[in-house]
Write a sequence for this structure.
């Protein structure tokens, strides 16, 4: 049994569980333990999605999500299901019903979310890797905050069957590890080989770098320098199309509309009390108009073409994952909301364009970690992981 | 299937449920439908106790609580499990995780709790009767607010096996109906016959009557007049021992200590986010000292002897169940807390002494119902129900 007393990363279940989850004895992941965010179905367990009504309605699942099953078949051992932010619609890691998983790298700071429990479990050493999902930053933000490797893969590359949706055209399945070598082992199973050539040319999106909090600049730039010493000089360019506000709002309209299509019926039917921030975001989502969706859809097409063209077949963006280290837990909801809105300006590019982004735990300040990201062309996921391995071998990362 | 869209009384479960609950085809309760507060185990369902962590930990129960089984065996049909206030430690009917069941008699007002969903289900006509529990008022308060009959039985008379505890030396199993005749049918099954003679002599605890809100006095006194026209004149007396404050605090110390013994381990282990008011009450409970418990225990013995002597074998108190009609839902938490603390002054007598108290829906103002209570000697439960039937037959009540 996992001792979760310190981390509060896991959704508790009856001990012993009704159905211990079987895994292959041998395989590429033999010896590794893992956890799955409580959006993924696991036979013998309910799926709660961070909301008590969803948990009550779930019943005991009889089928395991294919991606979880793939990991079990590869020899990995499932140790539990982790707390998610409510309905995965938050970036803070504070669930009003199930609690706040502890950031293993900075216990007095938020873990980030929505894959909060997964990042907590790995950063506290309770398992070797953990599955999360990333719609608008839900793997990348907690990876950055908890000092972990975390991938948002190319949209659609890893199956999310048997997992609760948030905004399907943005939803992706990622995972966390503490080190690059373990990350690559899981990548071999979940990604296999890329079908596109590995990108080679680093790019420096100056407009995104300008979004860093002033206090974080020195460390992030120093870490970026170490990356360039290994991978080559990053060529400056600008990424933003039209304006940051255009990107931000079009992202939010599309994510919101899809989130309302997913969860609106539940919310209208059961009127579940939603936690702070989550309730407001669903209220916003409900109000998104067809005109806003049409405009945002057109923008998304333009932006995707724009970013594809900027990267070409061989470009990789080097960028800060988040604007700063994790905020203190004691920050008021309004300050966290402001931080979240600034973070979306950094996070929304890969989501809008469906491109892979890997966050590496290689920066930080005041003994608190912070991630830099590699964002590559569609389908270059495994190559990004290989870059992380190369960097770790060279002493940049673990 | 029950249409719960308006009432939000039930904890939702997968439809169809994993295990529909069987009941006898014939029996004294054949034709009646009922619901059970989500503190009672029902085979095939989890038991949530109004808290998401308890729900997650529950697993699917394999045994049905004996009292629920007794009703099924008597032919009653279970239609679902109802929302309870969190860990049954509230009197408002507002669960921060599962929502606020709607008061069928006054939808813009609180239902009262903690047996909120049960009172909601019956007052909205979704079933004929519903099981609740009453520790400090959790049947009587919602009965009064929702215009229902509701009994707090003699402590220990109806089994609470297979139900979550709050404060065992106060916890009792009661139920709600809309009319006296149905109430008596359930009483025949759950109470059987009394082993003590029926009380006959009405008493008027003047000091409790003085606790009424001024706005409620006219209606409550008029209803009390109608009761006396049927059952005879109530003789004035005073009930309070030492002071209202003594009764209030000794009750809270004892209830709090037992509640902490029950739920403290869960709260310390999982740090579940508790809803407003509930968190504060558990914090209070945790701080209750051994000295306070010792003093309160001694007081409780004195008070029990005092009230037993006041009633004798044949006395029945006629008293207001609550200080007023149900507060508006829009009242701030602080106003509800103040109302709760005033209500405890009326409610704590039967809990401290372990005596039965039946609330009758026979008063009210502004088209909102309010209950008057009959509080009798230990073991006189069935006789109190007979009085309610007699009153209804005479046109006082339904």
């Amino acid at each position: 049994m996992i001792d979760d007393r310190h981390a509060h990363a896991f959704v508790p279940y009856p001990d012993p569980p009704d159905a211990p989850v079987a895994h292959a004895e041998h395989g590429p992941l033999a010896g590794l333990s893992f956890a799955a965010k409580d959006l993924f179905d696991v036979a013998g367990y309910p799926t709660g999605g961070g909301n008590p009504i969803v948990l009550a309605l779930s019943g005991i699942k009889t089928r395991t999500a294919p991606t979880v099953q793939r990991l079990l078949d590869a020899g990995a051992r499932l140790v539990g299901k982790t707390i998610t932010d409510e309905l995965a619609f938050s970036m803070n890691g504070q669930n009003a019903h199930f609690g706040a998983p502890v950031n293993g790298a900075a216990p007095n700071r938020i873990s980030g979310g929505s894959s909060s429990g997964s990042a907590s479990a790995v950063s506290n050493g309770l398992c070797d890797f953990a599955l999360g999902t990333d719609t608008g930053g839900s793997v990348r933000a907690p990876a950055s905050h908890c000092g972990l490797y975390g991938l948002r893969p190319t949209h659609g590359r890893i199956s999310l069957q048997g997992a609760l949706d948030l905004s399907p055209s943005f939803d992706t399945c990622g995972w966390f590890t503490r080190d690059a070598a373990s990350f690559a082992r899981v990548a071999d199973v979940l990604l296999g080989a890329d079908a596109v050539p590995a990108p080679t040319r680093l790019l420096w999106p100056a407009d995104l770098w300008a979004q860093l909090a002033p206090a974080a600049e020195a460390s992030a730039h120093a870490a970026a320098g170490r990356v360039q010493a290994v991978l080559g000089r990053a060529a400056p360019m600008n990424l933003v199309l039209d304006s940051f506000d255009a990107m931000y709002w079009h992202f939010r309209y599309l994510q919101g509309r899809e989130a309302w299509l997913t969860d609106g019926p539940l919310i209208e039917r059961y009127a579940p009390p939603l936690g702070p921030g989550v309730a407001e975001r669903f209220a916003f989502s409900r109000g998104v108009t067809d005109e806003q969706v049409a405009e945002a859809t057109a923008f998304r097409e333009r932006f995707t073409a724009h970013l594809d063209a900027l990267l070409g077949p061989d470009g990789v963006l080097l960028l800060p994952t988040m604007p700063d280290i994790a905020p203190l837990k004691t920050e008021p909801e309004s300050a966290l909301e402001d931080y979240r809105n600034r973070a979306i300006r950094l996070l929304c590019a890969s989501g809008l364009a469906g491109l892979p982004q890997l966050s590496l735990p290689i920066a930080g300040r005041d003994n608190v970690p912070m991630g830099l990201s590699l964002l590559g062309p569609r389908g270059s996921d495994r190559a990004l992981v290989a870059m992380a391995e190369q960097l770790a071998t060279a002493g940049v990362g673990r």
Observations:
- Chain B has twelve helices and ten strands.
- The longest strand of chain B covers residues 357-365.
- The CA atoms of residues 217 and 244 of chain B lie 20 Å apart.
